[in-house]
Amino acid sequence: MSNIALAAPFSDPDIPPAAPLARQELWLCIHLPELALQGLSWPPGIAGAVIHTQGGQSVVHAANHDAAGHGVLPGMSLPAACALCPSLQVQARDHWAEMRWRRRVARHCLRFSDWVSLDRPDAVLLEVGGSLRLFGGSESLISQMRQRLAQLGVHGRIALAPAPLAAWMLARSGQETTVLEPTALRSALGSLPLSALPVAPKTLQRLSPLGVRTLRDLWRLPRDGLARRHGRPLVNVLDEALGASPALLSRYQQPPRFRRRVELDQETDGLDGLTPILASLMGELGRFLTQRAAATTRIRLRLFHPRQRVSAVTLQLSEPTQDSRYSTQLLNEKLARNPLPAPVVALELASFDLHPHHPIAPDLFQTHAEHERSWSQLLDEVRNQLGAHALNFLSLGDDHRPEQAGQAHANPGHNPLPAAPRPLWLLPEPVPTSAVHWRVIAAAERIESGWWDPQAVCRDYYQALDHEGRLLWVFRDLRRGHWSVHGVFG
Predict the structure, then answer these.
(1) 242-268 pLDDT, tens per residue?
(2) Do the Cβ atoms of 423 and 369 come closer than 8 Å?
(3) Mean per-residue pLDDT for 393-404?
(4) Which CATH number fits domain 258-386: 3.40.50.2000, 3.40.50.300, 1.10.10.10, 3.30.1490.100?
(5) Prediction pTM value
(6) Quick count: other Cβ atoms within 10 Å of Cβ 363?
């Protein structure tokens, strides 16, 4: 019997485990069309608008319901808007207030996703591909988001799409659509006008003579020709809208917050018993800020009393600081002027308004750094003594009429100064020049504005010296030919 060699049994090939399928991204965009109006209020029935400066003229950025009823629309010049609605009341656009509202919405969106972005203007984006099942599907998620926005008092348009740019374009265009598959993006976006694309206005102007009105028209053109004639950025934006190229979005990080609470062993009805505890809490705050290279402008102390009563003391600082000793001194002074309404059983110290800490670099003799500190500390001490609203700073508004240009703000602004010199203080009323003798020493500055209301002006302003050597700001009324003194330079 011959020996028959048996083949060795086959061994399993060395096959690597299958990689898990990548989860498809799904982006929800909340577009905030009334962001500029958020937090502003006009009396019922009063037409109001928010304006900004564009190309040297005031332009309507947003209009409330009453103004829109008169035909006032965003992008309209202020004179044209006032011609349609003579009673229109306007306020200057506040970019910082808009950003605060967007951040507020973003903080609430963190309940739905850990990836939130504020990169697109007037909107909040969040990636919700991993959250759909948790919130019961896309319809349920959108419904819960709308409820959250209603609780905040915010009106938002919501769109859902596999690409963040597509979601933003749909929501911004008023198409509150849900697109779940990337293959459906071209159809969903096709009817949008070219103005929905975030590209330079010159690019859109060059496309207009070609008869291109919508994205569908644009996609019919040869891709290579578009890149050669209109630039690669246009093609890149189209790819990003279809999800063919990745979107590089920055992630919103909720700023750190400090909050500490101390329960007292027994009721305390005097400041002597609270001072060492407060000093300890302020020391913790100082270390918290130092470790994070942060500074604060607002500190809140809450005092808890029996029967669930709570009183609070807020310290508002003019400049961000991490100097806990200085803040403790101000807070103690404020407590000393406000008697405790009842015995205290617990204290809570909190600071939410944190900023990056930028220490002032001292010069050779430290005079500049000391001046900056002494100025901000003087402001804090005056406010601490007289109240938070006792001090105001002057800044320029959008109205060019001198009588209407000055605005008072609680914090110093950084408005650019007018090109021509202006006196800091104006006279209560212009004084006819028949009462003074003066000599013009500078060329005229023409101010012509306000024709839409009864306070219209058309004047040529001059700097002039009177017989006592005072530098005056005088004008000639171009309609009546009269001369008047409007201000005095310091």
Answers:
(1) 999 888 899 998 878 899 999 998 998
(2) no
(3) 68
(4) 3.30.1490.100
(5) 0.64
(6) 10
